[in-house]
Amino acid sequence: MAKFLFVYHGGSQPETPEEGEKVMAKWMSWIDGHGPTFVDGGNPVGMSKTVTSSGVADNGGANPASGYSIVEADTIDAAAAVAKGCPIHESGGSVEVAEIMEM
Known about the structure:
By secondary structure, the protein is an alpha+beta fold. The protein has 2 helices and 6 strands. It has a 4-stranded antiparallel beta sheet, covered by helices on one side.
């Protein structure tokens, strides 16, 4: 099986601790529901910097990452099918799916 990187973009932060617990429960249910598919459930990420040959910008790029996970699947289409159920979609976010190339 191949490994795929899920890069989460967008979404919104919970406004209360109670809402945060509900959101986290949805994420854990989604991850746990796929059993060993998730090699690394990942984490949210903080503000990023965009590094280019001309310098460093504190903007996170055009579509900054908000988190990541690593999954195993037979194909990128199978990995994308897992990503379709991601709770980030409920808050307007998206999931970028990319195969991790073995070197």
